[in-house]
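Researcher: Next sequence.
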Amino acid sequence: MRIYRMKTMHSIIAFVCRMFVLLICIHVFAGYGSSEILAVQPDSSAVSRLHPQAAPVVIWNRTIVVFRLNSEEISPGERAKFAIERMNQMPINLPEYRVVAVDGIEGGHRLAWVKVNGRIMFTLIEGEQDVANGESYAVYKERTVKAVESWLLARREQNGLPLLFQAFGLAVLATIVLGLTYFAVKRSIFWLMNHVNRLGTSSLRHFVIAGFNIGPYFVSLATGLVNIFQIVLLMFNGYLWLTFVLSVFPYTAPLSSKLSGFLVETVTGFSHGVMVAIPGFFVVGVIFYITRLLVRLLTAFFRAVEEEQIPLRWFEPETAKATRRIIVVLVWIFALVVAYPMIPGSQTKVFQGVSVFLGLMLSLGSAGLVGQLIGGIVAVYTRAFQSGDYVRIGDHEGVVQELGLLAAKIVTIRKEEITIPNALLMSSTTINYSRQAKVHGAIVTTEVTIGYDVPWRQVHAMLELAAERSAGIRKSPKPIVLQKALSDFYVQYSLMVTIDQPEVRYYMLSELHGHIQDLFNEYGVQIMSPNFVMQPDKEVVVPKEEWFAAPSRKEAGDSAENIA
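Model: Next structure:
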């Protein structure tokens, strides 16, 4: 604990020393004791803001007067330069300064010579006062005389050792207070951060809302806010310290007034902006609350329709999910349009410019996005397929996992997930094997070619018997055998069977093909596929005793269920 206190005191002393060195540098660079540095040239930025030809006399960070008219052939800028030179030539340690404005007429114009102890500093001309703000010539002269007196008094005080030592003492005291405040803020923030971390590891560790744990994110947000508060507080203390330190020295007192005025104006403007924005925020909050209630109501309704809890003849449950999304998006867009004028700052040029920029970005980048959205809407409302259907889209075949706003996802028989953009759905042919299979079953077809020397009735019977031996094939409707073509050398037979699950159609076909081969071998009938050239000398069949030649086994199951 003692070592920690020593380190703390060392940090405070080092901080105070650094701030004190900064204070000395500010005072040295401010130009203490140097008349050449004290002579400040006219501020060009201020000139451009006041009048195209206006030239302020700025000395010791004080604007004494602003010249706006020519004196004979001398421009306002040259007049200001000559005035600064004359004022800097005034002795510093005179016992008394008498500043007067002596009226006169020269060249038919009323003017006044501003004199210090009888010496002319500069001339004021009637008509160059700030007429735009309603300033009269008399007020213009009086204000200029007071400004000169204030400058002379500040210059005398700045060069007085008692006041200078007093100012340095106050500055050092303020620096020490700043160091102690810095230490107190650091300690308070350290305690607060520990409290937030303890709260995060205990109460907010499992802060679950709607199944989502937001505890860690809440702790991170609180930590960030505490850090921001620390930075703002330290900057505010530094700002107050700088304002006070500048105020104790006559040379920098005007800068202190500007800093304090800026702070007051900023706080006042911010407070006024907050007060003006409160009604707008209230209206936006009401709009958001009403919209949220409406969205909840619509979501509950469409989910009830989707789950067929509310039967509607004019609305299909398959389209309820997509309709809900579209209507929710439209409701929020409408709420945003209504609330936009109420948002504080929405009428400013910056806010409007950002809105136009974002709108332009969305317009340029949403060409493909709109196509995807339209494709998804068409797929939903044409009821081409839904989740769980076994479909074929273009060259891809599989079970639909998801139909999103931008793309559809299907899983193939090889467990491959394929993402198909919705725009491709509009340009591709979609075959849905599951739609009719839910009621009537799915039709699976296979073909064989048999020579003319085999009776067609025998072929029909063998194919029907192969279908009966295959598991997973419906007994009703019965399998159908069709003679599709009478080719030059063989007859083309087609077997059509009905299954319940189209996604296992390949497993069913594999088992069916095995039974077809067994039956045709059993009855000594040759399958002439794929091509028949001439009658072979020996029958192309497999004897039954060789059906299970090594390494095949009789006990091996070959049903579709086992294969799947």
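Model: The radius of gyration is 47 Å. The chain has five domains: 1-33+176-239, 35-158, 286-368, 386-432, 442-563.
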